[in-house]
Write a structure and sequence with these properties.
The structure is a homodimer. In chain A, about 30% of the residues lie in helices and about 20% in strands. Chain A contains 21 helices and 29 strands. In chain A, the strands form 7 sheets. Chain A has an 8-stranded parallel barrel. In chain A, strands 2-1-3-5-4-6 form a 6-stranded mixed β-sheet. The longest helix of chain A has about 35 residues, at about 655-685. The interface between A and B is large, with 51 and 53 residues.
Chain lengths: ~850, ~850
């Protein structure tokens, strides 16, 4: 029965009516079109014919039927032979020619497709064709996307092909079912150290990937468990490959380079040792016996504690090529990550600079990598920060195939609890001209192989979808996965075109919906940057742990090299050649010179390249420190505005997603304020320069929890101090619960009240609010934020509107702890109702 | 924690945003008003003060806070003493005067209220006051209803009071948890022969009743289990009374008049026997010890097999007064139902007429009933039919208090699976002038006690809410409960005002919503009547069983006296004095004369009073038989139109109720067609007069299931024949499933397909449809209709839109039976797609 479930849903749906959606269908909803729009497709043939028989072609056919049924309410007739009537024809170019030899088909790039109306044997047919089956499937998705966006399909004559061969996603899933930097539930692949019994979500994921042209997926953490390639595990891996195969998605795995020693019984994993390469040869052969179309390996080595070739004095090229040779015999690829750096850097040495590592290590190896090796490079020289310059190694590998690694999972950009649409950022990166060799070398052209004449690399995203129905926790987060696929296919697309396309597919084509959501998406990256870490300071987050909330000093005095060098006088990493680490010298001269000079470096990367005093004046004329204050207040205000923008879509978006997204946006607005206050207070204290507008540290509407009359609650210091209002919070270790009381002393009237409380990853504390004993509000802290202790990672806002208060009123918060979550509070805010 | 749940929901809700609703809150949703509307209530005081302390006043206060919180997002301050600020004051007139002795308060009728703005001790207060606490509660509901409907509350000066003292509901719940003629799940009061442990739904029901001024509820089936008044049961009854008490709803129970014999150990239940009255005296005393405000008894006796005083040659008055005397000592009421008739009438005697029974039996007793006896009279002389004249006994009891009994549960009007808003009908009844004693005596004035100078009776509705979240299965069915309460309070309200009021409260105040739903409601009774039993033929339903689907002959040749006298020549009960049963003579002369004459009898009651040939010409000029055909086709068409009307409210109604109501409307449209075909075919056959438009019996787009190529399925005759297309269906007794195949022989194109299948009350059969083996649709028959066998009560329509068919296609239905439900089919319809 199971397999019919999705069909049933589609059949129930009818023209133009909203229905609660989990988000699981993401942008492939095939929501019913309005009757008035359906007329546009009245001439669509009633049959779909597939020439040939394969898993991928069958997917293409099923998708075609599913899409038309959902959107137009019609069930296409499925034909296994060439229909003798007007039909939609799905076929590779070769098989199409075997039936209609005289058909003129335009040239189509590999994995591309052609959509066109042609007359075959006297019947007008709509042809979807490609040199390969994968391209036919992509063509079907392209055709259905046109219908979903209500575009015309008459007189169709369209050729598309992807910009680069590598269009891949990585999942950092562990075999125990957890996901490193995964924010949306457990793994869809693994649980309890095995592959899951139910792989239906894997198949659905494959469908989503295929719909935007992604053709491969590495399914396990780059910090790999060697067991994944052991004999006993291979039948399980094969099951995942089987689930992906109908969608043309090749399976990849991350491997541990030390496996020959760890699980192979050898006393070495030296890539130059013949016993080691022989061991790998056998592994690769075993894998291909189970998975004939296996995609390849991803390698993280000599990085963050992972063992690597350096242990034997070998280079990444030695290790990569040893593996690549074996894979090449079967058509496999080796991804070698350029994220290699010393994580025990001495922070006291001002010349040390983690940003230099990739170039320093990989540039000398250019030309030494085999042709089925892809060097996988994070977009910036550090690590997925909200703003970094393009990694210079893209210009430093001219005889090597390279792929850019992009963070769909928003590791440092809000972790899907904050809206942060990364396309504008990624477009900056892909369109950036590194000007290598004195010529124009845009990053996207380097990746495509055009700039330096390689056979082309491409695009890898770290996605980390989980078992949550909507894949990424935040339905809006899926715009980054969609956009990644679209850019990998065609990096010339504009960010606003992608936003428009995704919104239409995900939320429908009403103009108000499209404009509102597109506008929110397109501003969201800069909004996020402005209330977190502006001016290229990278991030002010807790880089040692969560990567989520603020923690300015976490990025100082550590071995990880993620530094901003903030002190009482100024801030920024001097990465100039003249006086700093010399990093800017890794760029071709025109680019390096731009960054080297304080006059020409763009404000938004100022602190990445230069250390300047807080009183330094930006191009805007504003001082650096005032700019930091101002953008944090502005960004927080803009995050607050998302709420009303979203609310305006009442009745335009189904309720389930409407409320879920509203909840995320409300959290974000509250959390932006936590960020704002932490960063502003920190820098006001360290710089000694006060906010000209006197906002920072002045919260006349707040009552600190630690200053209330406490019963059971105890005051606790929050670390770092700036992460809590007043540096402190309160904590209830009494299982029956505690109370905090405040006697209101302002004028009588209507007020709104904020309760800032701590929602940890364990426990579901209960909170109640009473005024003069009268029950006012109650909630449960069940958002399960990743934090294990009270602080900025767990700080959450409850807003209670419209409370009648008068002088002398007793406001009482009751907190009942649960497990390790101690019903913690930071402050209450009391604001006159608007 | 439980008790906060509803508050939490309200607090989450915010201005003007749709959220899925179960319908449990019915018209008391207190949905957030739009910000622009909220401004209108900005001056609402911030405090609510209650003078006095009682369960009912506390309900009033809590409701005031809840309503304002929900709609305006403000939490009123709750004060226990007289506030020294502007406040909303809830108080009885007496307690208000004790605080503000000089306040001028208008005269207010019993249980009425006054809303007004007054200055008390220098503060402008909004006063809700009444002679009694119940009236204060009603006033709060009245005030909140005004806000919910976005009416102004400035300069408020409004007095309201109810039209009649008796405003009561009956529930026909059995102690085992079933409900006789209950269509919405099990009892909220009983399960397993005891009162339910969880009475939260009882409390919520009390709140709904109070909100429309209903002050009593008889909780058990009129076919009563004597155990309900036994000692051991009384503590349980008291728990129900406790749940109702805060809402001012008095508890009543139905009793079995033979209890002294059945459970009392006496050898008689003769009301004239002193041992019997002594036994009842003790019972009544015992009840009042547990429930000091007990409401009273409801009695069904000498009716449909229930024992009664006739067994001892005593009259209803003898029985009623014996009980009433005991109740009167404690303030109780006795409801004696006038639904007394011989259910073993000889149908062969043309003078026999059940319609006469109430008048024949009760008119002679007028003046003999004690003053705390209410004679409870069904609105018409038969039994809740879709169209009946007003029962003449209302004019025949001039010294007796009477109450009208109305069927909120839609026993004969679609049982909440069909939309049928009964206010237009009930208004006809209440506004009907019986012209007794040569004067104007409108039914509503008789009930109020005005016409004949009694102390007033009132209104009783049979409601039969169940544990389904939305109370009556169909969210729209609740309009009948609301309307009942509003008419009992004020019978001068117009049906369209009630529809408007209910719609605004239940679905919001958008003009489009209000107009669309009001329009659907207001036409729905006549639509239902037209596709079931028009012209006063009463009903053509299965009166012996379901009272739901068509069964023309069920109303003939039975002892129940529910006859229409249809034969090959004509149809109708001759109830004239001149040639018939003489029933029309029970009305005062002007009314009786109107009905007596074929010239003056209204068409819509023609067949109730007269037997006429099929070729009889109506006032419209149309023949009777053609009228029957035409209105069935028109009514079915109008039921079909509801679907698009409702669909137009996409985004205006929350999704949960939107889809549930759409499902009910789709069922109704399909079932209307079943009714149409059964009635039209029956009368075409019996009359021999063909439909002038040749529609009846001609279904060129249908394929009979019994004519398909069957594998496993067997043909079965459906009884009566007209209830299935072609008189037959097919049935699958093979547990693995059966198939029925049809080879399509019409032109190629897009088609819509109906599958008419049988959905019984047991089992969930599975159906699949394939075309040439290709999967097209699947569904489960899980609507749990009340029917136990295939026929018109269980016939259901599955509509499959947009199927590509061409000549020679094989259409295959696969049915998999479940338990006693045999995946039955009647026919498939295949229509060119529009």
């Amino acid at each position: 029965m199971k397999r019919y479930v999705c069909l049933i849903c589609l059949l129930c749906a009818t023209a133009g009516v909203l229905r609660a959606e989990t988000g699981q269908d993401a942008w492939l909803r095939y929501a019913p079109l309005k009757n008035s729009v359906r007329a546009k497709y009245a001439s669509l043939p009633a049959a779909v014919g597939v020439i040939g028989n394969s898993a991928v072609l069958n997917s293409a056919r099923a998708e075609m039927i599913r899409g038309v049924r959902g959107m137009l309410g019609r069930t296409l007739r499925s034909e296994n032979e060439f229909p003798r009537e007007s039909a939609i024809i799905l076929a590779t170019v070769d098989s199409l020619k075997s039936i209609a030899p005289n058909l003129i088909i335009p040239e189509i790039g590999k994995e591309g497709f052609w959509l066109g109306g042609v007359n075959i044997r006297g019947n007008l047919c709509l042809v979807v064709t490609s040199p390969d089956e994968r391209g036919v499937l992509y063509g079907v998705f392209g055709l259905l996307s046109r219908i979903a966006r209500e575009e015309d399909i008459k007189l169709l004559h369209e050729t598309q092909f992807p910009s680069a061969p590598i269009r891949w996603v990585d999942q950092w899933d562990n075999l125990n079912g957890t996901i490193e930097r995964g924010y949306s539930g457990p793994s869809i692949f693994f649980e309890n150290d095995n592959v899951r019994a139910d792989l239906s979500r894997v198949s659905e994921y494959g469908r989503l990937l295929a719909s935007v042209g992604i053709n491969g997926c590495t399914i396990n953490n780059v910090n790999a468990n060697p067991r994944v390639i052991q004999d006993e595990f291979l039948p399980q891996l094969a099951r995942i490959a089987n689930a992906f195969r109908p969608w043309g998605v090749r399976l990849g795995v991350s491997i541990d380079l030390s496996s020959p020693q760890k699980i192979g019984g050898l006393d070495t994993f030296d890539p130059a040792d013949p016993r080691v390469s022989e061991w790998w040869k056998k592994r690769v052969e075993a894998i291909y016996r189970y998975i004939p179309d296996f995609g390849g390996f991803t390698v993280k080595a000599d990085s963050e504690g992972r063992l690597g070739p350096s242990q034997y004095g070998r280079t990444p090229a030695d290790a990569a090529n040893m593996l690549a040779r074996e894979l090449r015999l079967h058509g496999g690829i080796l991804f070698y990550r350029a994220f290699v750096y010393d994580h025990n850097l001495d922070w006291r040495n001002p010349k040390n600079d983690r940003a230099r590592a990739a170039y320093d290590i990989f540039h000398p190896l250019d030309g030494k990598f085999d042709d089925n090796v892809i060097i996988q490079i994070k977009h910036g020289p550090i690590d997925f920060q909200a703003r970094e310059p393009v990694s210079p190694i893209f210009g430093g590998l001219q005889k090597t195939r390279t792929a850019v690694e992009l963070p769909v999972m928003q590791e440092y950009t809000g972790q899907q609890r904050h809206l942060c649409f990364l396309m504008p950022y990624w477009k900056n990166i892909l369109d950036f001209d590194l000007q290598s060799n004195g010529a124009s070398t845009l990053v996207k052209n380097i990746l495509a192989g055009k700039s330096f004449g390689t056979s082309g690399g491409g695009y890898v995203a770290v996605v980390n979808v989980g078992l949550e129905p909507n894949w990424l926790g935040h339905p809006m987060g899926m715009a980054n996965l969609f956009g990644f696929g679209r850019l990998a296919w065609n990096p010339d697309l504009a960010a606003d075109d992608i936003a428009d396309e995704w919104t239409r597919l995900t939320f429908g084509t009403e103009q108000k919906t499209v404009l509102t959501i597109s506008n929110m998406l397109l501003r969201s990256w800069e909004v996020y940057e402005s209330y977190t870490g502006p001016l290229g300071a990278q991030t002010f987050t807790d880089i040692l742990g969560s990567h989520f909330g603020p923690n300015v000093e976490a990025s100082e005095r550590n071995g990880w090299g993620q530094w901003h060098r903030a002190d009482q006088n100024g801030i920024g990493m001097d990465r100039t050649v003249a006086t700093g680490t010399g990093f800017s010298g890794q760029y071709a001269l025109p680019v390096g010179a731009l960054y080297e000079s304080l006059q020409t470096v763009p404000d938004n990367l100022l602190l990445f390249f230069h250390h300047v005093p807080y009183t330094y004046r930006l191009h805007s004329g504003k001082t650096l420190i005032q700019h930091i204050y101002d953008v944090h207040y502005e960004g927080t205000q803009r995050a607050e505005e998302y709420i009303d923008q979203w609310r305006s879509l009442e009745g335009f978006v189904d309720e389930q997603r409407f409320w879920q997204i509203l909840g995320r946006l409300e959290f974000q607005a509250g959390h932006a304020r936590v960020w704002r206050d932490a960063i502003c207070n920190y820098f006001q204290k360290i710089s000694g320069v006060r906010d000209e507008l006197n906002r920072v540290g002045n919260y006349p509407d707040r009552v600190e929890a630690e200053g209330m009359q406490l019963n059971g609650y105890t005051s606790v210091a929050i670390t770092p101090w700036e992460n809590a209002s007043g540096g402190k919070g309160i904590d209830c270790a009494v299982s029956q619960g505690c109370t905090a009381v405040y006697r209101f002393d302002r004028g009588a009237g209507w007020y709104d009240m904020d309760v800032e409380y701590y929602d940890l990853n364990d426990g579901e504390s209960n909170f109640r609010v009473r005024v003069n004993g009268q029950f006012i509000d109650e909630w449960v802290a069940n958002n399960h934020l990743t934090a294990r202790k009270p602080g900025a990672d767990s700080s959450s806002r409850r807003r209670i509107k419209g409370v009648a208060l008068r002088p002398g009123d007793e406001i009482k918060i009751e907190g009942i702890p649960d497990r390790d979550e101690h019903a913690g509070l930071d402050f209450i805010g009391i604001y006159a109702s608007k």
